[in-house]
Amino acid sequence: MLAHQTGRIIRFSSFEVDLQTGELRRSGIRIRLQEQPFQVLVMLLERPGELVTREQLQHKLWSSDTFVDFDHSLNAAIKRLREALGESAETPVFVETLARRGYRFIAPVDGLSVPRRVALSAAGTHKSLSYWSAGIFASAVVLAFLAWAPWRHSSRPTEVIERSLTANSSENSVSSAAVSPDGKYFAYGDNTGIYLKLVRTGETHPVPLPPNFSAAVDDWFPDGSHLLVSRLEQPGTTSLWSISIFGGSPRKLAENASGGSLSPDGTHIAFRRGEPSYESWWRDEEWVMRSDGADQVKVAAFKAGSVVGMPTWSLDGKRIAYVRLYWAFNARAASVEVNEWQNATTETLFPDSRLGPALHWLPDGRLLYTLESPQNRDDPSLWVVPLQPSAKISSPPKRLVGRHGWISNITASADGKVVTFLRGNWMPSVYLGTLAADARHLLAHRRLTLDENENVPFAWTPDSKAVLFSSDRNGTREIFKQTIDQPLPESVVSSAEQLSLPRLTPDGLEILYVSTPKSAGP
Predict the structure, then answer these.
(1) Which of 424, 458, 475 is the last residue of a domain?
(2) Which of 12, 94, 107, 403 has its CA 20 to 30 A from that of 518?
């Protein structure tokens, strides 16, 4: 059946759209906007982060018996809308153009209350599934964006210029990205596909993909016309592929592989194998193969209690570097390892328990890495350390960028002058979804927890009518229960300590959970 959510007001940034009166306001002041641009805005707001095609806009704005220069009229409506929002097509903040296809609304939408159709399963038709989006769409629950920085060599301190390149909503966040070798384009992936964006103008084009081909962008091949991507074959199983940005059939390079990185000369690929562990960025082993998938060699074996992050190459292609993390409940240790993969030798470059999984080796020998704040793991900073040709540290590291939000997917152009990375905020939410008959695909999903706190689900009640989850909404992590047809949860267990991992007994009468003091182990 279909469930309808209705309302009158939609808010984004400092704007407010009143659907009843047909008015657009900014900071409470009415902005004059003609009917057609207003209808375009409403259509885009009804599907934030999703493509709205030109054909769909045509059917909405003009009846089939209307004779009009559709392309000219739609372009004029979009232009008036941009003027009202105070943006341009070259640097969009709200409305992004997808060349020859249509438009999408890329800014976060607050208090979305327009009519929406959410598919709910009929009794006995499909299984229901609750999940937090980080487990399904990588970083889909975080507000992720890209930044770039030209590096300038001089005796003065390194100058960093940072700006945002994307503004996807938290419902459709950027999950992977890489800058092209010439620094002019970056490819990024979200829930709707893979796209190419021109860094200078923001013009965006979709990358043609076969049906049901869901993949994350890992790197560019040096020719600038192919991408290395990790494809999700089925839950927990990924493979490496080469795809052309112009379309055509993708080519599989390796099974059970992810997180690939091309050597500077394009002859080899470093990648990882193993089940996702601890967090989605980490795996068990590092491997190297030829760029056509041949001669696969394990260069960093699995070590009990540890996982490895994304690999990166030295300029000469003789070494790869990665972060190795040793972890246990409420404790961690980490170090950067440098591996001479042809000689099967590994050395520790430096240890630091605050290290994140992302690294990138710049062509001038400097290594980019991230450090987490001791007070807040979700508040890291980007650092750079100069290395000698022998991969030894030549001078002390420097902090380049620091701002709230985790950093991942660091990539750079071939000359090292343009650097891109993902930045996002860790804000998991509970969603409800409807599984297809094959139990491998979601037919529809909707958000259950509507607040902006960390909500992590762990269990269903025996009658499948409510979800148990932990939340920090009251300052400490407590356990809550929320029925699937209610907007707010009820508190189940509260404490001054951190509570997590709730499990119900089969009869549903008792809860087993973990209690962790803020300053100690469980």
Answers:
(1) 424
(2) 403
